[in-house]
Amino acid sequence: MPLLVMKFGGTSVADLDRIRNAAGKVRREVERGYDVIVIVSAMSGKTNELVGWVEQTSPMFDAREYDAVVSSGENVTAGLMALTLQEMDVPARSWQGWQVPLKTTSAHSAARIEEIPRANIDAKFAEGMRVAVVAGFQGISPEGRITTLGRGGSDTTAVAFAAAFGAERCDIYTDVDGVYTTDPRIEDKARKLDKIAFEEMLELASLGAKVLQTRSVELAMRYKVRLRVLSSFEENTENSGTLVCDEEDIMEKNVVSGVAYVRDEAKMTLISVADRPGIAAAIFGPLSDAGVNVDMIVQNISEEGRTDMTFSCPVNQVARAEKAMQDAKEKGEINFHDLVADTDVAKVSVVGIGMRSHAGVASQMFKALSSEGINIKVITTSEIKISVLIDRKYMELAVQALHDAFGLDKAA
Ligand code: ASP
Ligand code: MG
């Protein structure tokens, strides 16, 4: 029988009524002739509550016990979903990660999926089970301990199951009806995209459009899983939501597909560091060891053997970055005159695979920003993305101006 994976996020299973609503969507697919693997998140807010309990109990917690506690929200919704389906006369049963078994690395709280053997679930499908409800977000380590995949990890569970079972599609049910050209709370002309390419979704996901966990998109791209994002609060048809797919499957494309932003960035500049071989390694090694997620990096032209080095990172990592740099200076690994932090910046990016074949996107972007009087502090580019750092107070204005400049309110 053809197989679908359907994933329901926390708001889609937030209470018994919503679980019933989600189960109704599953039943419809079963009636259409699909076997279904349902992946559930915990009820919304539950995982945060569990994390809070762990932290209150043990500030320096044992990561294995953190996973034991934090994974439990999904066990509840998996069992309730199976019961709800049974009440609808759909043959269903629940599976916790270890029962599948979904095998992961032992990196607790950030484990990676290694293997999903099909035999157990396939055997039950062969016996007439029509729906396997699997607890998302969790697995089992080689040591036999419960692991979790990182926050938002149920998306990754869903895509991994779709790949392992050769599903026709992986439908991600959530509280929005798809992926938008930008955040509709900032730009009311934001438009839902019918299709978006994996590469673009990856850029948008990691740039702060929080619809899908980044790793789930990486996985979908690697295994060519057709991924659809759609609302669990609407009647859906074949064409609902946004399909995340191979770029060959998209005929009509705008050059730019979306505008993304990250609100809480900081720009840090090391003034006058020695410009010598190894200096970048001496700076960014300690930053990475300190767990600072460096994003953009700009090295200025050097004068008389010295240069300024600018990088960006999340605002809440500024103190950590400063400490790492001061420590490295004290150890004599680097030398700089001053470290200047600007904590009032935001990053705004335009993304589109059309940039590969169209020149002039950058200049169009800079013109749009300048006509609003917005100063650009740092620019970086990749094959399908241009990002700028600007003053945070202009972030909304910049998003709106770029959305307008690239005509994103109109379909290609
Ligand atoms: N419940 C987990 C979380 O809140 C996993 C998920 O929902 O994707 O992060
Ligand atoms: Mg999520």
TrEMBL record:
InterPro entries: AceGlu_kinase-like_sf (IPR036393), ACT-like_dom_sf (IPR045865), ACT_Aspartokinase (IPR054352), ACT_dom (IPR002912), AKii-LysC-BS (IPR041740), Asp/Glu/Uridylate_kinase (IPR001048), Asp_kin_monofn (IPR005260), Asp_kinase (IPR001341). ATP binds at K7, F8, G9, G10, T174, D175, Y180, R185, K210, V211. Keywords: Amino-acid biosynthesis, ATP-binding, Kinase, Lysine biosynthesis, Nucleotide-binding, Transferase. It comes from the Bacteria. It is an enzyme of class 2 (transferase). CDD domains: AAK_AKii-LysC-BS, ACT_AK-LysC-DapG-like_2, ACT_AKii-LysC-BS-like_1. This is Aspartokinase.
